[in-house]
Amino acid sequence: MAPSKSVWCMDYKTNHAECVYDGMRGPDMLGCSCECHNKEKKKMRIFVTQNDINKGTRMHAGKCAVALTLSRLFDTDNVDVSTSGGIRAAGKSYSTTPELRNFIRAFDAGKPVRPALFEIEEVA
Length: 124
What we know:
The chain is α+β, with helices and mostly antiparallel strands. Helix content is about 20%, strand content about 30%. A hairpin with a 4-residue loop joins strand 1 (about 5-10) and strand 2. The longest helix has 11 residues, at about 100-110. The radius of gyration is 14 Å and the shape is globular. The N and C termini lie far apart (about 30 Å).
């Protein structure tokens, strides 16, 4: 059976990205809030891993820890992360939460940050 649409979701329990399809959920995708499972809100949870933090570049909108997370999830290098203008990834815009903005600011300032789960929401 061919899937109707594919999207990338973050399985925050096992800390890896997994492709899922409309109407199908794997046993590890509990808690998924990606667009395919939450059409009315268009919210997505993202998990910034220790690897993203280690490889991220401070003060670089396309290579910071959050940008690396989004690049992996959306399978694109076309990512721009800002504390003032939100997030642009894969041709779409996303709003950020105060917690995510604080994480980005701390990362950019060179302060210690830990892997964390955040929510972003697509904006029109």
